[in-house]
Amino acid sequence: MSRLYGTFAALRQITLGFEAGRCHVLLGENGAGKSTLLRTLAGLLRPTFGEVETLGARPEECRDRIGYMSHAPMLYDELTGIENLRYFAKLYRTRPCLAPEEAMRATGLDPGLKRPISQYSQGMRQRASLARVLLPRPELLLLDEPFSNMDIASAKQMLAALASLRAEGRTIILTTHQRELAAPLADEFITMRAGSVVSVERADHEMRTAGGGA
């Protein structure tokens, strides 16, 4: 699978499979293609060449089973955390969802906190964003830089929340520049460079070279 922007190849002949119920960590410098791959898996971008299958179907056919957390928090700064989640929960009226309070607690946040999102720390904002993604109970979580600009304490809280989700059988694919932070959670590290996958490393540190493909 490849994704072009004009003559620029953001993704170059990617061939990957992701095991269900595992955590797959995408590593690489800025511009490596990590976010583009995540957006393609989410169905937000279509490949220029090749095909993408997510949860046994085209991504656009199973979006209600996918939770995508972008690098931007996608929350309303003037609202509290619980007000944000109650607003987004209304968008899923035809689906069984987590209660907003339950989603917040799942990420280690207090639903009773009266502080607006604008006054949250970066770590709290990231976890509130994850809580929003959890509302419709997605099977697959696609998380773009969930540890961005976090201190160690906040990163550990995020790790604890993600570990619980993985223990429930959710599949997690996340991007990060901070391998050491994701190490306790990761089952697999996938390193990208210039739009290509250059290596895949299992958690047991068994290294294999990624194969090419269309």
Structure description:
Helix content is 27%, strand content 19%. A hairpin with a 4-residue loop joins β8 (196-202) and β9 (207-208). It is globular and about 50 Å long. The chain is an alpha/beta fold and 214 residues long. The chain has a single domain (3-204), classed as P-loop containing nucleotide triphosphate hydrolases (Rossmann fold). The strands form 2 sheets. It has a 7-stranded mixed sheet, with helices on both faces. Strands 1-2 form a two-stranded antiparallel ribbon. The chain has helices at 34-41, 81-89, 100-106, 122-134, 152-167, 179-182, and strands at residues 3-5, 8-11, 23-27, 66-69, 140-144, 171-175, 188-193, 196-202, 207-208. α2 (81-89) crosses α3 (100-106).
Topology at a glance:
Layout: E1 3-5, E2 8-11, E3 23-27, H1 34-41, E4 66-69, H2 81-89, H3 100-106, H4 122-134, E5 140-144, H5 152-167, E6 171-175, H6 179-182, E7 188-193, E8 196-202, E9 207-208
Parallel strand pairs: 3-6, 3-7, 4-5, 5-6
Antiparallel strand pairs: 1-2, 7-8, 8-9
